[in-house]
Specification:
seven-stranded mixed β-sheet, globular, mainly beta, five-stranded antiparallel β-sheet, about 50% strand, about 0% helix, 14 strands
């Protein structure tokens, strides 16, 4: 991964080149916490910088608020950072989606990493994400204080 350009201020653009298709990252400071807007495969995602942001498949839900996260202890987040997963870790997750008019409007959720205890079709995943009470929602429905 190579950072090509970077500004030193509250607003920061970093161009990143790697095999995860993360092409541009823009960080900015909000009143409550640092946020970043990243571009992955042409779609923009808003995420907090204080926790990893992982791609998941919301079709792999093992119950109403738990999605499969990883088969192993390490997972690469949307910024290209390899993260070691552990019980109780706070994470954000997303899945590609489009709005009704065809614009990128990914599904997003926040949650906590839990060890998978399911048998059957989900048995080969070691880690899950238990989604918080805000649930899975379109990114356009998230509030931004920018």
């Amino acid at each position: 991964m190579a950072a090509i350009g970077q500004k030193r201020s509250v607003d920061m653009d970093v161009w990143i080149v790697d095999n995860r298709h993360l092409t541009r990252s823009h960080a900015f400071d909000c009143s409550r916490q640092s946020m970043a807007q990243i571009e992955v495969d042409g779609g923009k995602h808003l995420l907090t910088m204080d926790k990893p942001y992982f791609y998941v498949d919301f079709n792999e839900m093992i119950d109403a608020d738990t999605v499969l996260l990883s088969a192993g202890d390490w997972k690469v987040d949307a910024r290209g950072v390899t993260v070691q997963l552990h019980e109780g870790m706070l994470v954000s997750v997303y899945m590609d989606d489009l709005s009704g008019n065809g614009n990128v409007d990914n599904l997003v959720a926040n949650g906590v990493v839990t060890q998978n205890t399911e048998a059957g079709w989900a048995a080969n995943a070691k880690w899950c994400c238990r989604i918080d009470t805000d649930g899975i929602r379109p990114e356009s429905k998230m509030t931004r204080s920018v």
